[in-house]
Amino acid sequence: MEDRTELDRLFMQEALKEAEKAYALDEVPVGAVIVCDGEVYARGHNLRETMGDPTAHAEIIAIRNAARKRKSWRLHGMTIYVTLEPCPMCAGAMVNSRLDRVVFGAADPKGGAVVSLMNLVADDRLNHRLQVGGGVLAGESQELLRRFFRQKRKEQPEK
Amino acid sequence: MEDRTELDRLFMQEALKEAEKAYALDEVPVGAVIVCDGEVYARGHNLRETMGDPTAHAEIIAIRNAARKRKSWRLHGMTIYVTLEPCPMCAGAMVNSRLDRVVFGAADPKGGAVVSLMNLVADDRLNHRLQVGGGVLAGESQELLRRFFRQKRKEQPEK
User: Fold this and answer.
1) Does the predicted model carry a pTM greater than 0.90?
2) Is residue B156 pLDDT above 90, yes or no?
3) Could you say which of A68, A88, A95 has the minimum Cβ distance to residue B91?
4) SS (H, E, C) B49-110
5) What is the ipTM, given to two decimal places?
């Protein structure tokens, strides 16, 4: 039997690498990877400011990359790993793309749509549901976000 | 005082023109326009099959077009018109893009995230809320969808 915990940590490390890429671009550091058949199939990191696109969250970019590669909008059989609990838009996109499973790192008490404010990825009323894993390398993800916002506050002292 | 009802019907007609474009491409006929300063600023129609992209709903395409044009992900001051009540992904994208208002045509009892299953665009826990209008030219929108699915059933007789 595969040790899902160990694999989940391994792929979350890859998502964290994506989050670091966002950080380097001065973007809120969130990263995602999509895994198919035990391998990283697509990647994405937050590019909202860089692209000036409100939909350019890490998860949406990874989903679009995976769909382009598979030449289909149906991503069944795949798992998405994301360093921060998805917002409603991204949770909805996971349902729409028929992903099998979502694993997130840190919870987002202010905007999370998987465990914090609501659960959109396992809502019986919608036409697809995902399995959920959470809290994988949450400390690492949180620390990266904290570091980012601490630096932002330093750059913008009291008004 | 402006007659909002009349204006809403006018812009929903434009969204219906977008839905017709989707129909012509054999896509589920949903269309959207984004209005700024009393003029159509961006347009979009469902391209999920054509682009093989699970995020290519009419609303997401219109939002991305508007953000590209404004060179900013913040779409405050704008209203989005969409022929069908938005799904959770699209409702979440409207919150993320800071749109002022959403007006939809037909309600979607199976997947709508504004009045039918939940209301994501006016959730006090999220960091932005939209004004909501609904039911504008709902009959026209519904008739177009009905015509589309009727034809689909004809093309695929009993298995």
Assistant:
1) yes
2) no
3) A88
4) HHHCCCCCCHHHHHHHHHHHHHCCCCCCCEEEEEEECCCHHHHHHHHHCCCCEEEEEECCCC
5) 0.95
